[in-house]
Structures are given as structure tokens and as C-alpha cells.
Amino acid sequence: MARIGGMPGPTVSAGKARTLAQVYRRFAEVDAAATSPLYERISAALSESGEALRAIEAAPARKRHPTVILAALHDLALAGRAPALAAAYAAADGDAAAAAAIDTLLRMTDTVVATAVRRPLRTDETGRYAVLYPAIAEAAHRAGANTIGLIDVGCSAGLNLNVDRVGITYSDGQSLGDPSSPVQLTPSVVGDRPIPARAMPEVVARIGVDLDPVDVTDPDEARWLRACRWPDQPERAALLDAELALAASAPPLLLHGDAIELLPGAFARVPADALPVVTTTWALSSFPLESRLRFLQRLDAAATGRAVAWVSVEGVGVAPAIPTFGDRHASGHSIIGLAVFGHSALHAEAIGRCWSRGRMLAWLADS
Ligand SMILES: C[S@@+](CC[C@H](N)C(=O)[O-])C[C@H]1O[C@@H](n2cnc3c(N)ncnc32)[C@H](O)[C@@H]1O
Q1: What was the pLDDT predicted at 123?
Q2: Is 44 in the pocket of ligand 1 (CB under 6 A)?
Q3: What b/e readout covers 244-274, taking b as 16+ CB neighbours within 10 angstroms?
Q4: Cα–Cα dist 259/81, whole Å
Q5: Residue 160 — pLDDT band, cuts 50, 70, 90?
Q6: Which residues, in sequence order, are bridge partners of residue 338?
Q7: 245 CA distance to ligand 1 middle (Å)
Q8: Which residues neighbour 249 within 8 Å (Cβ) at sequence distance 6 or greater?
Q9: Rounded to the nearest whole angstrom, what is the distance from the C-alpha of residue 230 to the centroid of ligand 1?
């Protein structure tokens, strides 16, 4: 990942020195241009304001990236502490938002920097269920399980643990889950193979494991998740709100710490007659390679007395033991993997590809 540096001091990005102004200019023109007119306008304005750039430089180098600073400003707007910025966001007024963002940044530099430093950028958002639901149901089917216990590793807010409580209508007409759920997804299916219609068995345990889990019942933490979304994507914000409300209505058990250390205890919390299904979504790239291998060993060790399944949704080549269809690393899509650890054998397979964090998927397994 590019190290983000400040102006006037240069920073190294992909072998090229970039000033902070250039980082913000590029974010406006490349990252935000297609998706967020508000962030495009604000980021361009920040890149042209020496005062604003000097304020951003009060943050440590790794916390100066536009996504982090803009999330910290958004958090102030959502908290009612930057009313002009909130009003500009609500009105989708780019010029007013740019002026209000600079004003807020200059008036509340210490608060913006403190938020950027304290809070890791969160990527939790919708879409994962559309990929996870059929893959978990397939895992249970292959292992012959009637009940399952979910263990989400690198769970962040643990939203994946509600996978059986949402409704999904795929673009090919297939539907899964609960049609009356307040959380409804409409992902796109590519390719000829239909998503299997199998329903998920009863979920009897929901356990999230993370170095730094998010408690969605804490209003500040829930607001930060919203702040990390871009302000001109109201449909996604509404979906996230519905997901947070669903999660808060029955919070999962969150285990705080290193997954390698905590996994044995997590398995012990899944009733003996249920299949433990470990899920990882875009989590393992945060683990050093050695930890990924130890993660695999943990699953294998847990499978001495019973079967264990692992559903992975990770970048190409990130999930150990999961084949890649020969796809190139960093190709922009992810591989849906399914591994079942039996008493004496591991069966690991790539069962699909997905794009846009699961909003589009191709099912490729024989079911
Ligand atoms: C990129 S986020 C993915 C979060 C979520 N699974 C998703 O789909 O958005 C990676 C998560 O893994 C967690 N993480 C990183 N290393 C970990 C470790 N050794 N043990 C447990 N969690 C870890 C981080 O705290 C972070 O919440």
C-alpha cells in the first residue's frame, strides 16, 4: 500500500514521490470522480488549500490519506458537531461541502486528527451475505450438518454473523434467506450457473473474533462505521443502518484478540453436535503469511473430533490451500473458497468468484 505523506515533504508511492496536495488531487480525479461528487469536490478543494494541507499534516503520515481525513470530518457531521458540513452533505452541494469541510478542518484540527489516529478505517458494508449465504449452506450440505455455529475471523463489527437473517434476491431471480428481513440485498449474478437454492441450517452459535472488534451497540462506534461510508451514497448508508439495527437486536459474542490464539476457545463454544463454520471475508490479507498457515493448522487441529468448514472470500491467492482457477493475483476480483476438514482429509475448493465486495458473483461449483 502507498505510504501517504505530507506536503511539503515528499512521500513515496509506487516508486514516485507525491506531495500531499498531489495525493488529494489524485483522490479527487481518480478515486472519487466516478462514485462521489461530494468527495471529488472536497478533495480537490483540500488539495488547493495550503492551510488545509498544513492542518492535515498534524496527523501522522499514515493517517493523512483522504479516506481517513474525510471519514473523520464525516464523523463530526454525523455527530452534529459540524452542522454546515452536514447540511451541505444532505443537500449534495459540493461547493458548500468543500467550504464547510475546510472550515471544520481548520477549526477542529485536533479533533479531526485525534479521530483519524484513534479509529481504524472500517470497511464493513453490505454485500458479503450474498456470497456467504450459499457458500455456508453448501458447506453444511457437504458436511451433512443440520445445525451450524458461525465463527467469523477478522469480524470487525460481526455483521457477517447475521447472514441467515437477511433476504437476498439475485439478478437471475433466485432468492435465499428471509424475505421479511429489514435487510434485503439484490446482488448480480454473472455466468450461467445458478446459485444453489439450499437453505441454511439453523445457526446455534455466532462468534466474532477480531484484534479490534466493533461493538455495534456503542453509538460512537456505530457512527464511525457510518462515517467511513461516503456521504453521497444514501442507499448504501440506509442498508448499513438496517444491518446495524439487525446486529444490535441480537449482538454476537465478540472475542477480542489474535485469531490464532482465540480460535481453539471459539471452537469450544460451538455445541458438539453442530458444524463449526469459520468465515473470513477480506480478512486474511491483514495476517502475515506465517499466521495464515497457522490459521489453517488451527482449523485442522479443531477437526480431530468433528468436521470443521471454512468459507473464505479473499483476494486471489490470499487464502491458503484454496485454489485460484489460475487467476492472477491482484486481478480486482476475489475467490470464494470452501474447505471442509474431515477426520482424515481436507477438501479445499474454489467455488466462485466475486466482484465489488460481493455485490456481483459467479457461482462455479458443481452442487
Ligand atoms: C480488512 S478488515 C475486514 C473486516 C471484515 N471481515 C469485512 O469483510 O469487512 C480485517 C479485519 O481483520 C482484523 N485482524 C487483523 N489481524 C487479525 C488477527 N491476527 N486476529 C484477529 N483479527 C485480525 C482487523 O482488526 C480487521 O477488523
Answers
A1: 74
A2: no
A3: bebbeeeebebbeeebbebbeebbeebeeeb
A4: 37
A5: very high
A6: 311, 349
A7: 21
A8: none
A9: 21
Strands 334-341 and 175-177: what pairing?
A: unpaired
Do 136 and 80 contact (CB within 8 A), yes or no?
no
pTM value is: 0.89
Asked if 39 and 29 touch (Cβ cutoff 8 Å), the reply is no
The secondary structure element, H or E, covering residue 236 is helix 234-249
Residue nearest atom 10 of ligand 1, based on CA coordinates: 283
Q: Is there an atom of ligand 1 within 6 Å of 12 CB?
A: no
CA 278/CA 259 separation, integer angstroms: 11
By the 8 A CB rule, do 347 and 299 touch?
no
At position 228, the amino acid (one-letter code) is C
Strand order in the sheet with 175-177: 175-177, 167-169, 184-185
Measure 113 CA to ligand 1 centroid, in angstroms.
23
Please give the biggest Cα pair distance in the chain.
64
Measured between alpha carbons, how far is 304 from 299 in angstroms, rounded to an integer? 9
Q: Looking at residue 17, what is its pLDDT? A: 61
Ligand 1: which atom is nearest the Cα of residue 259? 20
pLDDT in tens, 226-249: 999 999 988 889 999 999 999 999
Ligand 1 pocket residue status of 286, Cβ below 6 Å: yes
